[in-house]
Every structure is written in structure tokens, then in C-alpha cells.
Amino acid sequence: MTFRVAVVQPITNPIVEEEKNVPDAVAFVGRAATEGAHFVCFPETYPGPWRMPAKFDPTQAMADAAKKHKIHVVYGTLEPISHNEQTAYNLINMAYPDGHTVKYRRTHPNGPWIYTGGEWWEFQYVAGNEFGVFDTEHGKVGLAMCSEVYMPEVARALSLRGAEIIFMPAGTDKRKLWATWRHLIWARAIENLAVVVTTQNMFNHRERGLAMVAAPEEVMCESTAAGMFVVDVSLDRLREMRNSKDEVGSARDFSAKQGVLGEQWQRPDLHDKIFPKASH
Known about the structure:
Layout (H helix, E strand, L loop, with lengths): L1 E8 L11 H14 L4 E3 L17 H11 L2 E11 L4 E9 L5 E5 L18 E2 L6 E5 L2 E5 L8 H9 L4 E3 L10 H15 L2 E4 L12 E5 L2 E6 L3 E8 L1 H7 L28 H4 L6
Parallel strand pairs: 1-2, 2-3, 4-6, 8-9, 9-10
Antiparallel strand pairs: 1-13, 3-4, 4-5, 7-8, 10-11, 11-12
């Protein structure tokens, strides 16, 4: 079964005009639906807000747009904890076609971290403790965020919970990290037999974006430019690979290793050695 994913890499409004991202995002949802998309994915913190104390919450607008256009909307925002202390969870949310929403609170790394003292974000980041995997009619969706791509445990935790498509939207221009980031997006797809989707905010057309849809055996779509990119996705192939084993001759038919989430490759008996317990 094939479904369609729209990946939005927007020209994001300046931080002082961050509220303008909300109507822009609503318009993108409408465009994505017109092109037959079942999912639309926005970057981290898009459509905002970027700073605490938060001046607005885009959740209702995203939920309303998802319901109006009968589409899943993956988007970024903050969840305030304390306005006085400027603490917040960093969220990737998903609005369903019926208008209800689910959320993932960024788990890695520990907070506080780099979301203060820069030119974009300004809040005291608090880490969450739960991995977000959610059922949809098209397959199980996992939510993660940005540089969590450098922590293979995050995508693995999602996949071991059944996630087949992992949305991992990112923040801003990767600069010198661009090449390793790009490789890791595909690596997370290969090692978890999942489809991994990412995109980022661009504040002008001189920046280099990183919008991608990566399957275990191929990068299906990638662009450094601003825009919306629509990709037809099927989970049939990765499900076949998840449900089969690596055998002599498998490399003639498959471009990634089969069964890496199953008992052929997993060694629960070695978990204590992989993550050694502190000696007393």
C-alpha cells in the first residue's frame, strides 16, 4: 500500500515575526492535501514559538488544518513548563485527520543544553522521558527530533516499539555538520529498516537545507532548497525485510540487511555488556 508524504522546507519568518509561521504552515497543509499527501512534515519548532515566555501556541491551528484537509500534520512547538524560569519541553507533535494531536518531548541530550544564548531559540530546555510511537492507518509512526539522529538509541527505541516511518525534523542550517547529518539520516533508516523523514528551517535562500526521505535501500528524495517535496512511500518492502532473515545470497535481492530488529540479530543476553552496570 502506497501513501504520500509532503516534506516542507520553508523560508521561516524572522524570530521577531515568528507568529507569521502559523498561517504559512496552514497554507502548506492545504497545498499538501491538494497534492494528495497523507502526511505533511514541518521542521523542528515550526510553526513555533521559538522563545520563552511563549506568546502563542500553534496546536489548535494545526489540528484544525489537519481535520479540515483530512491529513496527518507533523509540526514543532514548545510546551511551556515555567514562564518565570523560561523552561519548556521541545516538542514534535502530530495532528491526526480527525483533529486530535499526540506529542513527543525531546529526550536527548539531557537539559539544559544549546537552546539559549543563540540567535534563534531562547528557552531553558528540559528533556522528556518517553518515546513517541503512534498508530496510523498507514503504519506506525515514530517521532524524534533534529540532532537525536546522532544518538542511534533514539531511532532504535522507536523501531523496537514498532515504528515503521520515523519523522525526525531538524532546526536550522547544518553548516559543517551537513555531510555527517545527511549520512546519519540514511543510516538510521538502514539499521532500523524504517523510512526516515527530515527537513529544516531556512531563513533565506543562501542557506543549505536538508530535506530527505530515506528508505533502507535508497534515499527516495533529498533537496537543499526551500520548498515542498512530495514523495510516494510504501512500507511493503521494509516489512518484508523486517519479517525475513539474512541468508546466503540475500545480497542479490536486498540492498540492506534483513531482520535486524529480530532474533537473528538481536542479543538480549548481551544487553548488560553493551550497557555495563557500574561496579560497586
